[in-house]
């Protein structure tokens, strides 16, 4: 059994590459946290403008930003910031780290949450495997580095904002059996409603299946465990 997720924090910053990434499971944990009185904010590296087949980026970017803001509101998240990196081309390194570190200084979180950045979406024994995207891999690793960068006055000396060393934990979404987990039984319905807000995106992704049905299937896959419980798993790192 995974260990319970810590509760000794008050403000979380959830960092993702694209609109809809948080809604593929982690939003169920966000719903539980905000219902318990925690403050949660979202930070997105891109607007996901390359994510809808047949819809040009100039149209898809603003549309997806709007869908993400509505999704966030459903799980009690009022503040959503976009960093304006180009969708599909995130690179792990100092450029992305500096932008993330500056945002961490602005939001001053004591918990930073990010998404699965491993090479695959399946455990190493599964073949053929589902390759994780370039943006997801770059983002997750850069977030872990940026927490340290935000606290350091010398790595990026021109970085705006006061150094922030108050991040206690970084929680990274895991696949497979997690070391820590949030019981999200009470967050499932909100998570389904949250993902449903990505309506245009899901309509294009799977035109034959109603959006609500797609959203429920995704949230079930992301949260249902073999013992019938509902969990979202994380590996924790010190901030
Ligand atoms: Zn994504």
UniProtKB/TrEMBL annotation:
Family matches, as SUPFAM superfamilies: LmbE-like (SSF102588)
GO biological process: glycoside metabolic process
Molecular function GO labels: hydrolase activity, acting on carbon-nitrogen (but not peptide) bonds, in linear amides
Record field: transmembrane: none
Keyword Zinc: yes
Pfam families: PIG-L
Zinc is among the record's keywords: yes
Domain of life of the native organism: Bacteria
Alphabetical UniProt keywords: Zinc
UniProt name for this protein: N-acetylglucosaminyl deacetylase, LmbE family
Organism of provenance: Klenkia brasiliensis
């Amino acid at each position: 059994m995974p260990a319970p997720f810590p509760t000794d924090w008050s403000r979380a910053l959830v960092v993702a590459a694209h609109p809809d990434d948080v809604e593929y499971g982690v939003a169920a944990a966000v719903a539980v946290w905000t219902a318990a009185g925690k403050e949660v904010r979202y930070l997105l590296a891109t607007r996901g403008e390359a994510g809808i087949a047949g819809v040009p980026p100039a149209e898809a970017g603003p549309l997806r930003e709007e869908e993400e803001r509505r999704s966030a509101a459903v799980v009690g998240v009022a503040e959503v910031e976009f960093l304006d990196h180009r969708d599909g081309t995130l690179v792990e390194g100092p450029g992305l780290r500096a932008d993330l570190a500056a945002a961490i200084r602005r939001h001053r979180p004591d918990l930073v949450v990010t998404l699965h950045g491993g090479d695959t979406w399946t455990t190493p024994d599964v073949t053929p495997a589902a390759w994780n995207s370039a943006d997801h891999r770059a983002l997750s690793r850069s977030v872990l580095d940026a927490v340290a960068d935000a606290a350091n006055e010398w790595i990026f000396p021109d970085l705006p904002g006061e150094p922030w060393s108050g991040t206690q934990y970084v929680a990274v979404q895991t696949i497979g059996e997690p070391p820590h987990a949030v019981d999200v039984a009470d967050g499932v319905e909100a998570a389904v409603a949250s993902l449903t807000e990505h309506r245009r995106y899901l309509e294009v992704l799977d035109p034959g299946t109603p959006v609500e049905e797609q959203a429920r299937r995704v949230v079930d896959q992301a949260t249902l465990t073999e013992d019938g419980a509902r969990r979202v798993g994380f590996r924790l790192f010190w901030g």
